[in-house]
Design goal:
Layout: H1 8-39, H2 41-44, H3 50-56, H4 62-77, H5 81-87, H6 92-107, H7 114-124, H8 129-139, E1 149-152, E2 158-161, H9 166-178, H10 188-204, H11 216-223, H12 242-251, E3 273-277, E4 292-296, H13 300-308, H14 320-324
Antiparallel strand pairs: 1-2, 3-4
Helix pairs in contact: 1-4, 1-5, 3-4, 4-6, 6-8
Length: about 325
Amino acid sequence: MDFKKISNEELNLRLEKLARSERKLTHVILLHINEVDSRDLHLKMGYESLFSYLVKALHYSESAAYRRLQAARLLKTNPEVAAKIESGALNLSQLTQMQRCLQAENKKGTAVTSQKVTEVLVSMESKSIFESEKILATEFDLPAKANEITKPQKDDTIRIEFTLTREQFEALKQAQSLLSHQCPDGSWSEVITQLAKKFNQSRMGKGNNNPTTECSETAQSNTATKKPSMAPRTRYRPAITAKTKRYLLAKAHQACEYQDPRTGRRCQANFQLEVDHIKPLALGESTEQKTCESSAEPTINSRQKSQDCGACIWAILTDEFFFKWPNPA
């Protein structure tokens, strides 16, 4: 399929239409799964379970088959779920979480009314998996796991499981955002290691321990194949001070300020934030606070601004942008 002749607006409309069709098809598939189950068709075809039929006959992965099976069972007892699936208000992962909670309640001998199921599902609409898990934990009084687990593994790695309070988790998430340039993968193991090494250095001195070595390996590998640098800058650009950057990021609530000109939707990303110019330096702008904004890398809006004025991309405040978006000239 050739996408070169398709405009951005048409591409977005096509994808939205396909997503709606996919959700409708998912609902229909769930209905068919229930019908196969009611007829025991999978047993007549020689499959020991409906799960085995979905994996071996329909070639779903184990996780995909499990989600569809659990969602189909919930749909059988709560038909109103169908409309939520088609609208996108609820997804298979949320329905799977809900069905698991209902199964756990049944094992305990606790009856859950259809009205409560409906109320919980309504509260989960348009929520993330993280938010949905919190709702279910509250509604079904799931016990909090406070014990810490440390397990050695055969490759000399260590697996650690522990529970954080909400305040602790928010602090760790903020650290993850602030370290996103040094730890581009954003994995918790890298973030915690980076914090630990920096703390150790502050108490013990640097020595031979480089805190950014491990976290920056991915970033270095990403820039190892960078194209040669562009032509020298034609005018001096004074650096934006750290004080200005801190002020702007705080003013933007540590989130990207880019807005879609069509919908007005703000990006709100907080990963690998950069301070950028609202008006490119190539148009004579300065580095004062009022002329800058925070943005998530890569800054597509700023790229467009530089193209409009025919300037070099060095107006963008990120070297990685050079590799991703070559000089339009």
